[in-house]
Design a protein that fits this description.
The protein is mainly β. It contains no helices and seven strands. It has strands spanning about 1-5, 10-15, 20-25, 30-35, 40-45, 50-60, 60-70. A hairpin with a 2-residue loop joins strand 6 (about 50-60) and strand 7 (about 60-70). The radius of gyration is 11 Å and the shape is globular.
Length: about 70
């Protein structure tokens, strides 16, 4: 599972070969977006303002935490 581009001026793309759940948190810890994906490809973040975010991804037994930068 991966997320790109990072940094992004518009939106972020998640690619996975399995179902997943994602949560996006602002730098103050506020949940700003979340969702589930059952596709190989999903887009999000076009409504996020400039800043640094934390993306938590869960799929099957895999958990990832990534820092995202919105320019």
């Amino acid at each position: 599972i991966k997320c790109y581009p990072n940094p992004s001026k518009d939106r972020f793309i998640i690619e996975s070969n399995a179902n997943y759940k994602y949560s996006v948190y602002a730098s103050d810890g506020l949940l700003v977006a979340e969702g589930n994906g059952n596709d190989l490809y999903a887009e999000f973040g076009n409504k996020l303002v400039k800043g640094i975010y934390t993306l938590k991804l869960e799929t099957g037994g895999e958990h990832k935490v990534l820092k995202l930068v919105k320019e």
